[in-house]
Structures are given as C-alpha cells and as structure tokens.
Design a protein that fits this description.
With 455 residues, the protein is an alpha/beta fold. It has helices at residues 4-15, 18-25, 44-66, 136-147, 165-178, 192-205, 208-216, 234-249, 270-277, 289-302, 309-318, 323-339, 346-353, 365-376, 380-384, 390-406, 411-417, 422-438, 441-454; strands at 29-33, 36-41, 71-76, 154-159, 187-191, 221-225, 253-258, 280-284. A 5-stranded parallel beta sheet has the order 5-6-7-4-8, sandwiched between helices. A 3-stranded mixed beta sheet has the order 1-2-3, covered by helices on one side. Helix 4 runs parallel beside helix 5 (165-178), helix 10 packs across helix 11 and helix 12 crosses helix 13. The longest helix has 23 residues, at 44-66.
C-alpha cells in the first residue's frame, strides 16, 4: 500500500477538530508492517492519550484506506521503533529491458521518513482470463507488453465497466512479478483518483518534489487505472503529463486504463490526449454468448464444481454486459449450494439472479428512459430540461450510465436524446462510476435503483 499512514492522517484530518488533530495526530509517525499498522508516539503520555481518545477513530480511518480492518499497534518512541526496510532510492536501474523482466518483490519509494517496501497481492493473472473475440487483441497486446515483443512502452486499455481492463492491468503486474530474470523491479499500481489524492497530500505537506521523484525517477512500470478521472482537473493533468513524459524519456513503461477512448475525453489538455494515444491502444468489447458460456465453464472448473448446462445458459443469457457481475453471480450460486447443501439448479439460479442487474434481449434506450422516469418519478421532459437540481442530475446520469452499458449507441447519440453534449454524458457516466466504486451512501442508493430497474 502506498503511503498508507499519510492516507490515514488525511482521513483523520477531515474527521477530527483542528485542535485535536494538531495536538494528538500531527506528532505521530506510522507505517504498515504486513497487516499491522504500527504507530509511534513521541512519548508515553502521547501514546496513552492517543489510545484512549483516538483508538477507534484511527482503526476506522485505516479500515477505510485499506479496505479491511488492520491490527493497530501504538508504541512510544523510547520503547519501540517502527520497522525500517532498507531504501532502494540510491539504485539507478537501467531502462526497462527488452528481455523478460523479473521481480520477486515490488519496490515503491514513498514520501514517509521511513521508506517502505510494497508487495502487491495480485488478484488476477493471464491464466484466469478467458479469451474471446471481444478481448483477444487486448489480451495479446497485454502479453506482448510483458514480453516486449514489439518494443511497446505504453499500453492504453479501454472498455466499459466490468469487461476486463482491470483484470488485464493486474495480469501484467502479476506476470512481471512472476518473471525471475531481474529483481527489485519497481512497479507502481494505483488508480487515477489515488494518484490525485497523493498529489493533493503532497501539496498540503509541501513535499511535491518528493512526490515527483517517487513517480518520475523511482518507478520502472506505472499501472494507472481510470485515467478519465482527470477530466477537468488541470493541475492533476499537468503532473500526469510530466510524469508520463519523464518515464517514457527514461525508457520506463506505462499501462493506463479508461472507460473512454482518448478522443472521447473532455476537458483534457490536448498534449495529454496526444500522450494517451501514443503506444498501443486497444478496446475490449462486450462478450458474445459463446465467450460468456466459456467464462462460466472456466470459472466453475477452477472452483471444482459442475454447472448444469441449462443454468450456464440462463446466466449467459441474463447477464451479458458485465463480466464482473457474471462471475460474482456464479460464485454466489456455488456458495449458496454449498452452504445450504442444495443442488445447483434453475430454481437456485433464479433466486440468486434476482440480486443482479439482468439484461433483457431487447433492451434499448427507450426502455432505459422509461425505467429511469418511473424510478425517479420524472417525465422525459424533466430529464431533458436544463434543471441542475440534484435529483434530476442523478436520474439523468443514471440513464447515461445504463445507456452506455446496455446499448451500442455513441455518446453523441445518447446525448442528443437528452438535449446534452457528449461531454456531459461522459461526466455523468464517470460520476456514477465513482459513486458506485466508492460505495458511498449515494452510490449504494444508485446501485439499488439500478438493480430494481433491471430486475
């Protein structure tokens, strides 16, 4: 995890009063040691006060940053030191080699006083990626990127949500980590939002030069997800452009993912769009039925279960546009069968399917508009109006998101139905994606609404 303690501090600063934050949090130092968040207080008194006053708040903030609840150790400086991992900052690795690359551990410099070592637990690999006509080019490009067969130093993966761009990005990191010809290759994997958040923290802490050094000179491979997040963020765009230019000038490699093609992005500096278009650009399309069936068969075989053909066909026919949901639905069917000691049957499959976004074979923009109007209690004219009231904007953005996901209409075509430019559609889709990904209160409400609309 990059800068875990700084992210926890940033979260605490937003939640605590300025006085409490300055008095008790500012003097602390911390780092993540395996799954333990070790926090060092300057003395025994501060340690006791932090434990008594802020223990729960620190655990909550750390859980939000990490995605799980870590064990937290608070110690006084004279009693216990934070674990120190030797820095890699003095090494000057050669440019990304043309031969296979190896990494038994992935090193990332950080702005903390104590350097830390980052080892990623990759959730996806090439071995569990199911290839079909919709993604074979992206798959081949990702593999050749690892092997450097065609001298490509930049890869841009584009797809709608849930079609596999994150899987391939992580597979690249996993494959490079698996190779054994070179150790200590420094890989940085993070989302565009995390990149922006770290830049904001660096500006606030007046450590921008350290931030620049971390990403421009101390990274051999940058894996950056969801770069459409940078739309309309001029300062962030400047820093990203300079980072990409620096890495490429040094022969380092970059992988970026986005829900939109570079030419579809709005409020993005033209020089940055040009950089996005350099290297290899590939699109992952919606999977056909045979590919969806192959995914179901492959995943069930990996789980060592047999899925009846009628159940497999049902899943493939009802979840067509989001592979992530298809895999999740399959796992839930298998889990419920095991927990309840039931056979995997059509009845069980239908029970589980009710919890997911189901695709109708004839779904089109008219049906999506009808669903949204009914769910939010608006008429089409209200959706098409210039109103910027929050409820109208959320309903309109939900319609944009569903149209992008379930139809083959262009962004411009979708925008015309709502009296909007295609740039507004992009912003609306991005807004819904962010709310869903963050699992905010609004995001959870939108998710439940989408489930209801498509049930």
């Amino acid at each position: 995890m990059i800068n875990t303690w700084q992210q926890v501090v940033f979260s605490l600063e937003k939640k605590l009063s300025p006085g409490v934050f300055q008095l008790w949090v500012k003097p602390l130092e911390g780092c993540l040691d395996n799954d333990v968040l070790v926090i060092q207080a300057p003395n025994e008194f501060v340690k006791t006060q932090v434990q008594n006053r802020l223990g729960t708040a620190i655990v909550t903030a750390a859980a939000e940053v990490l995605g799980y609840t870590p064990h937290v150790e608070i110690c006084a400086a004279q009693n216990k030191e934070l674990p120190v991992i030797p820095p890699m900052l003095e090494q000057q690795p050669a440019p990304f080699p043309s031969q296979k690359i190896a990494s038994t551990q992935l090193i990332l410099p950080v702005t903390q006083t104590l350097p830390t070592q980052v080892v990623y637990n990759w959730r996806h690999s090439f071995d569990d990626f199911v290839v079909g006509p919709c993604n074979n080019l992206a798959y081949a490009a990702s593999q050749s990127f690892c092997e450097d067969l065609y001298g490509t130093d930049q890869l841009f993966l584009c797809s709608a949500p849930g079609l596999g761009k994150t899987h391939l990005a992580q597979a690249i990191g996993c494959e490079i980590a698996r190779q054994t010809n070179r150790q200590h290759l420094r890989v940085c994997y993070l989302s565009a939002e995390e990149f922006a958040g770290q830049l904001v923290m660096a500006i606030k802490a007046k450590t921008v030069e350290q931030f620049k050094a971390r990403f421009r000179t101390n990274v051999d491979l940058l894996l950056l997800e969801d770069v459409h997040f940078f739309q309309g963020k001029e300062k962030m765009q400047d820093e990203l452009l300079n980072t990409i230019n620096s890495l490429r000038n040094q022969g380092r490699k970059i992988v970026m993912t986005s829900s939109f093609l570079p030419r579809e992005l709005m409020d993005i500096d033209s020089n940055l769009v040009s950089r996005f278009n350099q290297g290899f650009l590939t699109v992952i399309d919606k999977p056909d039925r045979d590919t969806r069936l192959n995914i179901i068969t492959t995943k069930s075989r990996m789980d060592q279960v047999v899925i009846p053909q009628d159940v497999a066909c049902l899943l493939a026919d009802r979840i067509k546009t989001d592979i992530r949901q298809l895999e999740s639905c399959l796992k839930n069917i298998v889990l419920q069968a095991k927990l309840l000691n039931r056979d995997i049957s059509m009845d069980l499959a239908w029970e589980v399917l009710q919890n997911y976004d189901l695709d109708d074979a004839t779904i089109d923009l008219d049906k999506i508009i009808s669903f949204v109007c009914q769910a939010y209690g608006f008429g089409l004219e209200e959706l098409r109006s210039k109103s910027r009231k929050k409820d109208r904007v959320i309903a309109r953005n939900t319609a944009f998101f569903l149209a992008r996901k379930h139809t083959d209409l262009s962004l411009a075509d979708i925008g015309r139905r709502f009296n909007r430019k295609h740039s507004t559609v992009i912003k609306g889709v991005t807004s819904i994606e962010q709310e869903l990904a963050r699992q905010t209160t609004l995001g959870n409400q939108i998710y439940r609404t989408i489930q209801h609309l498509q049930a």
